[in-house]
Design a protein that fits this description.
globular, 574 residues
């Protein structure tokens, strides 16, 4: 790959353009298998620089705390409990502003590189309340001045907490600096909760499943706050491992390793597949990585939690730091880079610096146990009922098992979206054409299709789009990943189909008034952990659902990325 130019597939455009969608995806999938997206080196360095700025920003904020001094005297203050508190709030702020997950070109966000704050400080953008029929004062999808004020208040309150001093000595934590004032913690939690009930996208963008429970842990006093935070980390790791007990995860590994800037040799990347270039199912090396990563994430945190120092803690900590460095250096799609840096810091502060603190030191074990039961219960429910619970609080990180959608949009509908939606970013195809040029934009667009197809659900999505579009009219539509639509419409996306399901379809229909047939959407639910199927629905934006049914996961994992012939089992045809 070049330093400034991407390494894109070389095809005969005239011949390639004559093929079916499946035939055009095939060379893209093969290119992905041995090159990845072909990201230029300069772009990876850009993200490295962003991580450095994230670390530097946190460093300077910590030094604003009374009792913590010395830019280069990190060894004197890095393990202070208030430093960890500020790391949590700082990363929450970093994410909810839009600088973390989903930022920039590696998430297909070019102009501008973020949405988030640019949308959520602007009235009349789309908001998506999680339970508008159950929670009073949350109905509607239009962002009001009140919503803007609440979001601004969250930003301001978080900054106030970041610039605050500790409350004084806490002997049991061996600190003279102390912890943040409880009223600030309560204020941040209340604002985040109210915002989340008004707009689930903001809560998810703040990575509320990680940072909200950690902020709740700060409500406890002394030792309890540290041990409660350890429990939160334990649920994050083991919950993610639980969700990877499926047939999808090896596909994630092969796709991610192909895109990794660390694995540069094409010959090595090919080994992650069964028989490159004809059989691009995950090979033995992918399965070894997948099973090994799942075992590490499930078992090592237990040793880390219950060992209280010494060799076992040291080994477990090194393994978990290496685990997150592995994810970080692979530069996964969605670019959750700073999150992995935070998790590494959490390993060092909670489990190394405070290795001696455990369950036996709790003053209020029932309250801490209640926090554990709630967040662990959400993870279990999210794996049993994925349609009801986002893959983020369900901890289905990189499990390959997500709710996904594919939107079939006519040119007339794309024009209506441009006129009817209050947005900062243009439609995905327009962004690609602006960045690559109109002629070359088809290549990265199909590379995006290939990425989706390399995951198991891609086989089902590209099968179902044939059923979604009216017979004989497929050439009229541009097939767009729901994540890209979500990025344009609500300002943030991170692999979560809950943000571009029927609720977003209805919100866009209200604003754009699509005609029947102008927008057709395939919605594919994730696989419940206790079943071997994935449910789907086909929806016309103007007339509603017209088909539903299911596909077997076993039929998806045996097919190649360019397949669009997965057997479909219809439950309710039009």
């Amino acid at each position: 790959m070049g330093f400034l130019e991407p390494e894109l597939p070389v095809v005969d455009m005239a011949e390639w353009s004559k093929g079916t969608r499946s035939e055009r995806i095939r060379p893209m999938a093969r290119h992905w298998a041995e090159v990845g997206f072909g990201t230029p080196v300069a772009l990876h360095l850009f993200y490295v620089g962003k991580i450095c700025l994230y670390v530097l920003g946190g460093w300077l904020i910590v030094l604003c705390t009374r009792g913590i001094d010395g830019f280069t005297s990190v060894g004197d203050w890095w393990s202070e409990p208030i430093v960890f508190q500020k790391a949590v709030l700082y990363t929450l702020l970093f994410e909810v502003v839009g600088l973390g997950c989903g930022f920039g070109p590696l998430n297909n966000r070019f102009f501008p590189p973020l949405g988030s704050i640019l949308y959520w400080l602007r009235p009349n953008t789309i908001r998506l309340p999680p339970w508008p029929g159950r929670i009073p004062l949350t109905r509607g999808t239009n962002r009001s001045v009140l919503d803007v004020a609440l979001y601004a208040a969250l930003l301001v309150m978080t900054v106030i907490a970041l610039l605050s001093n500790g409350t004084g000595p806490i002997p049991e934590l061996a600190t003279t600096v102390g912890l943040l004032p409880v009223w600030q913690i309560v204020a941040v939690l209340v604002l985040l909760a109210v915002l989340g009930l008004r707009d689930k996208v903001i809560f998810l963008a703040a990575r509320g499943e990680v940072y909200a429970p950690l902020v709740v842990a700060f409500l406890f006093t002394g030792v309890d706050s540290i041990v409660a935070a350890k429990f939160v980390f334990l649920v994050i790791w083991m919950g993610a491992a639980l969700s990877k007990l499926n047939k999808h995860f090896p596909f994630v590994i092969s796709t991610m390793m192909s895109n990794s800037p660390v694995f540069r040799r094409k010959s090595l990347k090919r080994k992650f597949f069964e028989d490159f270039p004809d059989d691009l199912r995950p090979g033995r090396l992918s399965r070894l990585f997948a099973h090994g990563a799942t075992a590490v994430e499930m078992l090592v945190p237990v040793a880390l939690f219950f060992s209280h120092g010494g060799l076992v803690t040291a080994i477990a900590a090194v393994v978990m730091v290496g685990f997150h460095l592995g994810i970080l250096t692979a530069v996964p799609m969605g670019v959750p880079l700073e999150w992995n840096v935070f998790m590494i810091f959490g390993v060092l502060v909670l489990f190394v610096a405070h290795a001696d603190l455990g369950v036996g030191d709790l003053h209020h074990p029932v309250l801490v146990a209640l926090l554990f039961v709630v967040i662990a219960g959400i993870v279990i429910a999210g794996n049993l009922f994925p349609r009801a619970i986002s893959f983020l609080p369900g901890m289905r990180y990189y499990a390959g098992n997500w709710d996904t959608t594919m939107w079939c949009v006519t040119p007339s509908a794309a024009a209506k979206i441009g006129r009817g939606i209050v947005a900062i970013a243009s439609m995905p195809q327009a962004q690609l054409e602006r960045f690559y040029g109109k002629d070359r934009a088809q290549i990265p667009m199909y590379m995006g299709y290939a990425f989706r197809a390399m995951n198991t659900h891609g086989r089902a999505l590209f099968t179902l789009v044939h059923r979604a579009m009216p017979a004989g009219r497929e050439n009229e539509y541009t097939i767009t990943d729901g994540e890209r639509i979500c990025s344009t419409a609500v300002g943030w996306n991170f692999g979560d189909g809950h943000m571009h399901n029927e609720q977003l379809i209805a919100a866009m229909q209200q604003r754009c008034r699509f005609e029947p047939g102008e927008v057709r959407v395939v919605l594919l639910d994730a696989q419940p952990i206790n079943k071997g199927t994935q449910e789907y629905r086909l929806v016309d934006a103007a007339t509603g659902e017209f088909e539903r049914g299911f596909v077997y996961v076993a039929d998806m994992v045996t097919r190649q990325p360019w397949a669009d012939d997965v057997p479909v089992h219809v439950r309710a045809p039009a």
